[in-house]
Specification:
It is a single chain. The chain is α+β, with helices and mostly antiparallel strands. It has three domains: 189 residues, FAD/NAD(P)-binding domain; 110 residues, Alpha-Beta Plaits, CATH 3.30.70.2450; 132 residues, Glutaredoxin (3-Layer(aba) Sandwich). Helices cover 31% and strands 29% of the residues. It contains 15 helices and 28 strands. Strand 20 and strand 21 form a beta hairpin. The longest helix has 30 residues. The chain starts with 10 loop residues before the first strand and ends in a 7-residue tail after the last helix. The N terminus is likely disordered.
Length: 577
């Protein structure tokens, strides 16, 4: 059998939802060959996922994609939980240390459209009406049997396959993987409509009551997403419904079934019954029912085939975590596949996808299940926790901070990953944590000397590693540097120690790293380099392509350890298998 040049084969991504598109974006930005197929002839016009978290927005910024998404989305700056008309807790996102201290509300279909348009600029088009019907793995490639909408069959030879084809994943079924978990009892109602009320339009509202759960999520322009559980339990007859504390007689809608989408009449009845707040619902645009499952696979990788997004895990929509989790694991996988395809890493790097992401998926399932059970509890300890204990806990600052970081997904970290090299510095994020943005003055850059002031995220390119070397400002006068014209900035002081560090990392990561020497800039204390990355000077932070810190330390004592770490994980692998 002739040797296969695996690096000349594409990565086949099955599924053109947010997860598959994000994985394709990561690969294409690294100039890896990628092919995206989806069996649906057209994108879905409606979608369940509408929330984009702060961490996902940060990653979109690094991929130069965030502006059109911000223009289309609606910003929600707080979440409110009510019980029987009384607000129990309010979680505001303003204190988050990010440029995006909010939940951005945007239909998944719009997010997919922006991603698809961005992929087109990278030379990738989505092949629709193409279905995966068979898989055969070999040592050096995967043979995927494809069926086109016109009946034509094709054998696609791919270096790797990524299954991002949703909860009913064909890839997962062809691999024979168990989707362990359970189907939960609740049936949820979703509806997009107009709601007039005195509730804040830049906050979302969750109502818990003995009758069930209801949620109102503003989407901008008077449009709202309305969500409720067990709405099909409503039947014919008269019911005592309360509005603004007063009892009124209201006729329930006809018994609801899942054969037909929820009606405006049903949505009005559910809202009046559960919100205990004056609401005027009108102009129903789209509605649907869905069941909640809590399931996940045990293995995200089977030889050359990987699973991501809903193909790997499904759970309650509580906390708007699902789509964001899928996007972030796609970006985690994308750069690793690109390294393998370029011959810059061995097979062990691909195994870290399971090591890093599987624990996060497990935690998301647990957290979303608990939030759902807490909000729906009608009696017992969970109701007591919600009604009596939560208001007390919500007033405790450290717990509020932890909740903000969890919901926004800024708390996601890989500190226990074997890819992480941690050394103690005076403050700053630890290796394995997200690399936060900061205002910096560039002393020297990868394209030659490039003085000027900007943001760390503007310097980081997700097609490369970024080595940020934090130094003292030239002549010790950062304010004078900021005020002076760029061309008049003083030459960086020669430092043999830092030069050796740069040379060793360029040798360990040839063509895969960009090295920046930066120092503090400006007077924005919240985003200053010192407040964000600590006081140790000089210090280095190696940022992975997916925006997480792979290593940190001091050039004098830790440069050799960093070089060995990079050589161990990113040494050249054979290009022909």
């Amino acid at each position: 059998m002739a040797a296969v040049n695996v690096n000349a084969l594409p990565v086949l991504i099955v599924g053109a939802g947010p997860t598959g598109l994000a994985c394709a974006m990561s690969l294409a930005r690294s100039r890896a060959s990628v092919r995206v197929i989806d069996r649906a002839p057209h994108p879905a016009p409606h979608s369940r996922a509408i929330g984009i978290q702060a961490r996902t927005l940060e990653l979109f910024e690094q991929h130069r994609l965030v502006d059109p998404i911000l223009e289309l989305g609606h910003r929600l700056r707080a979440a409110n939980l009510y019980s029987n008309g009384t607000r129990l807790a309010r979680l505001d996102f303003d204190p988050l240390h990010t440029r995006y201290p909010y939940l951005l509300c945007l239909e998944q279909s719009a997010t997919e459209r922006v991603l698809t348009e961005h992929l087109a600029t990278l030379g990738v088009r989505i092949e629709r009406g193409v279905e995966l019907v068979g898989l055969r793995q070999e040592a050096a490639q995967v043979e995927a049997q494809l069926l086109h909408v016109d009946g034509r069959q094709e054998i696609c030879r791919a270096a790797y396959v990524v299954g991002a084809d949703g909860a009913h994943s064909t890839v997962r079924h062809l691999l024979g993987l168990n989707f362990a978990g359970q189907a939960l009892a609740q049936t949820f109602l979703l509806a997009d409509l107009q709601i007039a009320s005195d509730l804040s339009d830049d906050e979302f509202h969750l109502f818990a009551s003995a009758d069930g759960l209801a949620g109102i999520i503003p989407m901008g322009g008077g449009r709202h997403r309305f969500i409720a559980d067990n709405a099909t339990a409503l039947t014919h007859g008269s019911a005592q419904l309360r509005t603004n504390g007063e009892s009124v007689q209201a006729m329930q809608p006809a018994a609801a079934t899942e054969d037909d989408p929820p009606s405006l009449e049903l949505c009005r009845a559910v809202a009046q019954q559960r919100a205990h707040h004056p609401l005027m619902l009108s102009e129903l645009g789209w509605s649907s029912y869905f069941h909640i499952n809590s399931r996940m696979v045990e293995r995200l990788r089977t030889q050359r085939v990987f699973l991501a997004g809903d193909a790997a895990h499904v759970h309650s929509p509580a906390g708007a975590q699902g789509m964001n989790t899928g996007i972030q694991e796609a970006l985690n996988l994308g750069w690793k596949l690109a390294c393998a395809l370029a011959g810059k890493a061995g097979d062990a790097l691909l195994d870290t996808y399971q090591i890093e992401r599987h624990p996060i998926e497990r935690d998301v399932l647990r957290q979303t299940a608990f939030i759902t059970q807490l909000a729906e509890a009608e009696r017992g300890p969970l109701k007591l926790l919600r009604e009596r204990v939560m208001p007390v806990l919500a007033a405790f600052g450290p717990l509020r901070d932890a909740a903000r970081l969890m919901v926004s997904e800024l708390a996601i970290q890989y500190r226990r990953s074997p890819l992480t090299l941690e050394r103690v510095l005076d403050g700053g994020p630890r290796a394995g944590e997200r690399a936060p943005d900061a205002l910096v003055h560039v002393v020297d850059g990868p394209l030659g000397r490039a003085p000027g002031t900007g943001r760390l995220y503007d310097l980081h390119d997700p097609a490369f590693f970024s080595l940020f070397i934090l130094v003292e400002p030239p002549n010790g006068e950062p304010s004078e540097l900021d005020a002076a014209p760029a061309l008049a900035a003083p030459e960086p002081t020669a430092d043999p120690e830092l030069d050796r560090l740069s040379a060793s990392i360029e040798a360990a990561l040839p063509g895969a790293v960009r090295i920046w020497r930066v120092t503090d800039a400006g007077d924005d204390e919240a985003f200053s380099l010192t407040s964000t990355y600590g006081r140790t000077r000089p210090a280095f932070y190696l940022v992975r392509p997916d925006g997480y810190i792979g290593a940190r330390g001091r050039p004098a004592s830790d440069a050799s350890a960093l070089a060995r770490h990079c050589e161990a994980w990113f040494a050249h692998a054979p290009k022909v298998v």
